[in-house]
Specification:
elongated, alpha+beta, 4-stranded antiparallel sheet
């Protein structure tokens, strides 16, 4: 059985498992709390996931996988372990790997249930007059690709080459999307700039563009903001910044994300 840092005084497997689950849950909870920023936008009241992973022979997390109904929460669950591993490496904290009967280090497969409950129980998503919403848009030389989520929390992509729209595929989480070209480059840009395009469209004869700031900033202390830009004389100027997702969802601009 692997020994999580802070659990070294435990000697029995049962107490080691209990200590590891308690400490690990505590350490990744801040990252899971970050999901509230996205949940507000999507009007998600609750989400749960089973995070599966391996603690390998080097005492590091590997082979991450998350099972749950909400692919965005699954993505946050997986990224929480990646971020925790990075923090552990910087602090030079290690997990003692599990060992076999000959005292040789071995890979150990483990799982951890995670759950999110919103403080806001007003679920307006069910009242939206659409089946899908745009999460963000990826631009390539040949097409624009919309990443959408539907009311059943399926993550889908659609392409548009200017002449027609077409279905591209379905994904189980954001990591799966980010691992496939041409999505990889757009995700990397979002990480570097902190901004990612959601969509754009006309309202009352004016063209507006919506961006999300800090969507990929997996830190509960960083605000995820929705910024609306308006086209003026051939350039984009910031029009309004929404500091709460509920405020944006009640605005006239929310309908630009409906599909």
């Amino acid at each position: 059985m692997p020994i999580y840092f802070g659990c070294e005084e435990n000697t029995e497997n049962r107490s080691l498992v209990a200590c590891m689950n308690a400490n690990l849950s505590h350490d990744i909870q801040n990252q899971v709390t970050y999901f509230s920023n996205i949940a507000d936008y999507l009007q998600v009241q609750s989400a749960k996931s089973k995070l599966k992973f391996t603690i390998n022979k080097e005492g590091k997390f590997s082979d991450l996988y998350a099972e749950g109904d909400n692919p965005i929460f699954n993505s946050v669950a997986m990224s929480s372990l990646i971020l925790l591993q990075s923090k552990m490496d910087k602090a030079k904290l290690t997990i003692q790997p599990g060992k076999d009967e000959n005292n040789n280090p071995v890979d150990v497969v483990m799982s951890l249930p995670l759950r999110y409950e919103s403080d806001n129980k007003d679920n307006d998503f069910e009242k939206f007059p659409v089946f899908e919403r745009v999460l963000f848009t990826i631009k390539t030389n040949e097409e624009n690709i919309e990443v959408r989520i539907d009311k059943d929390f399926n993550l889908k992509t659609y392409g548009n080459n200017g002449d027609r729209e077409y279905y591209l595929g379905k994904f189980s989480n954001l990591f799966e999307i980010a691992s496939v070209d041409p999505y990889t480059e757009a995700f990397e840009s979002g990480f570097k700039t902190g901004l990612i395009d959601v969509t754009k469209g006309l309202i009352d004869g004016k063209e507006y563009k919506i961006q999300i700031k800090n969507f990929f900033e997996n830190d509960p202390n960083v605000e995820v903001l929705i910024i609306v830009f308006r086209e003026e004389n051939g350039s984009w100027a910031e029009y309004y910044e929404y500091k709460t997702k509920k405020e944006f969802n009640q605005s006239k601009f929310a309908k630009l994300t409906y599909r």
